[in-house]
Amino acid sequence: MSDLLTQRRGDGYHHWNLYEGDGRVGIEWYFPDASALGAQVMLYHLEPGASEGEHRHLSGAADSCSVESSEEMYVVVSGEVEFVSGEERRTLRAGDAAYAPAGLAHGVRNTSDAPAELVLVFGPARSGEGETR
């Protein structure tokens, strides 16, 4: 038998409320237990008005949503979202991306009137990073 793994859309699908965000985020998590890559990959589906809520990933921080420091990259596949970090807001459209280094408070919200999809890639912070934010 081959070592090739495939995953069909819907096989790893969940509807979750994340980080006190508004509404539910549809999440397709790709190979969370099978991948040896240093990063994890998800497909987010946000209906209009949905958000994941602002959060951060910083080892040792009381307000961190994860035990380990991690970095995240969001790539918009379709639709339009607002990437938020504190008071700063950036509108992202299909093909645009945002990067959140370890420790940076951030979140994403669909402020448009159409669904949006994003690929989210996250993984451990580079050695020595994410310790002071």
SSE map:
Layout: E1 13-16, E2 25-30, E3 40-46, E4 70-78, E5 80-85, E6 88-93, E7 97-100, E8 107-109, E9 116-124
Question: If you had to describe this structure to a student in words, what would you say it looks like?
Answer:
It contains no helices and nine strands. The protein is mainly β and 133 residues long. It has a domain of 87 residues. It has a six-stranded antiparallel beta sheet, with no helix packed on it. A three-stranded antiparallel beta sheet has the order 6-5-8, with no helix packed on it. The termini are far apart. The C terminus is likely disordered.
Which range does the strand content fall in? 35-45%
Mean pLDDT equals: 88
Q: What kind of oligomer do you see?
A: single chain
> Would you tell me the structural class of the helices and strands?
mainly beta
Percent helix range: under 10%
Query: H/E series, N to C?
Result: EEEEEEEEE
C-alpha Rg (nearest Å): 15 Å
Shape category: globular
Uncertain parts: 129-133
Count, helices: 0
Widest sheet: strand ordering: 1-2-3-9-4-7
**What is the number of beta strands?**
9
What is the CA–CA distance across the termini? 47 Å
Biggest sheet features: 6 strands, antiparallel
